[in-house]
Backbone:
């Protein structure tokens, strides 16, 4: 395993799960900046950072990468390559290349420009959970290139996931801990993670803009459509295990225990978008939250209804659907395959006109929102002054103990209170 002292490292890999967690004396949060170490929900005092790490999921860059990438994704689950090859078909169809990598590089460049425009002089590094460049490489470079004598290197991890769930919150923080352990940098690097931002206007407004555009296109293309009866808007969320949804979010005081934070947050976003549609057209257009991209053993129940099952049930009831990929930041593999190919084919089979709304991508409002998350921490912006459109926001800077626990046992994680 490479470490920060090996200047000639040319190969990196996903580290094994960390067997330990290191907490400095007097701190409540592992590997946190002094401002976050006390564990307050929001850090409302200015924090100095040395670097930003744009943190994503990762994806293969060619056919030879696909199975190794899927091994990383399923690490510890002992899934044979034969089963992984069944899953790999989506990537094979695209030449083994996931679009997420190029999309994240475009987002990184846009963030760098926005930082420059705001006179924020911080370097931006890019790291992935499951493929090159890995978190280990990004953390190592950020540390080596931004050392400050007498104190640890302070990194702000800008996570490319908007919602509360194990796979979009705690698993990132666990992987940050794994990287620190693999690099032996627990004492030399501090990592604070960005808050959830599903209800930041810069994330929501591009979906509103896209949905209004799709409605206008349908009205223009099909003048006989009755928006109140013939059209339905489907907000497509990435499905997760029902147990993970029940344990998503902060466990201490939000009012969504029956729904689960993940589902509640998506419903809130859907409500914001449809309020804008109603304001524009003075009509209540029907809408529903559906799910996509379910994976895993059949005996584990996941959130439903699946978008394709739901579309099949609309035959004869609707004439058109608008699909909003509400979970996703960019038009990557799961959006392309699950929505642009599979869901569209299902809609075509049911005789439904089909529109798919674009993801935020590098929309100027979304890029500005990502830099807002950085600036909040640099300035110590009070929670009451942060941008959030629902009663659930703004998300916490420091996750509560047990936040977004997955189906397995809790592991070492940065960015939150123990355990």
Residues:
């Amino acid at each position: 395993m490479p470490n920060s002292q090996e200047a000639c490292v040319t190969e990196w890999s996903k580290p094994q799960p960390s067997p330990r967690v290191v907490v400095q004396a007097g701190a409540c949060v592992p590997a946190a900046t002094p401002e976050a170490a006390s564990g307050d929900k929001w850090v409302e005092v200015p924090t100095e950072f040395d670097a930003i790490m744009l943190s994503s999921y990762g994806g293969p860059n060619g056919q030879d990468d696909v199975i190794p990438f899927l091994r990383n994704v399923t690490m510890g689950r002992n899934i044979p390559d034969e089963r992984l090859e069944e899953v790999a078909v989506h990537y094979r169809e695209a030449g083994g290349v996931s679009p997420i990598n190029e999309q994240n590089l475009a987002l990184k460049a846009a963030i760098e420009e926005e930082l420059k425009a705001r006179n924020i002089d911080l370097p931006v590094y890019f790291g992935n959970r499951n493929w090159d460049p890995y978190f280990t490489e990004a953390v190592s470079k950020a540390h080596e290139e931004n050392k400050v004598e007498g104190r640890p290197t302070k990194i702000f991890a800008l996570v490319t996931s908007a919602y509360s769930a194990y796979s979009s919150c705690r698993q990132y923080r666990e992987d940050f801990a794994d990287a620190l352990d693999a690099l032996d940098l627990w004492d030399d690097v501090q990592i604070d993670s960005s808050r959830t931002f599903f209800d930041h206007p810069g994330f929501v407004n591009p979906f509103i803009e896209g949905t209004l555009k799709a409605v206008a296109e349908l009205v223009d293309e099909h003048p006989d459509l009755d928006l109140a009866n013939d059209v339905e808007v489907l907000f497509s969320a990435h499905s997760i295990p029902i147990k993970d949804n029940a344990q998503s979010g902060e466990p201490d005081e939000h009012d969504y225990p029956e729904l689960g934070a993940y589902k509640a947050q998506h419903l809130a976003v859907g409500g914001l978008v449809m309020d804008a549609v109603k304001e524009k057209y003075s009509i209540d257009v029907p809408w529903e939250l559906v799910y996509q991209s379910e994976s895993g053993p059949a005996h584990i129940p996941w959130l439903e209804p699946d978008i394709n099952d739901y579309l099949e049930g609309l035959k004869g009831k609707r004439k058109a659907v608008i699909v909003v990929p509400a979970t996703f930041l960019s038009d990557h593999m799961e959006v392309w395959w699950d929505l642009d190919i599979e869901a569209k084919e299902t809609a075509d089979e049911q005789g439904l006109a089909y529109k798919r709304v674009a993801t935020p991508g590098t929309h100027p409002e979304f890029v500005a929102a990502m830099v807002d998350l950085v600036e909040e921490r640099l300035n110590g912006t009070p929670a009451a002054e942060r941008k959030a459109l629902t009663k659930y926001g703004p998300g916490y800077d420091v996750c509560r103990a047990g936040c977004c626990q997955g189906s397995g046992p809790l592991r070492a994680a940065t960015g939150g209170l123990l355990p």
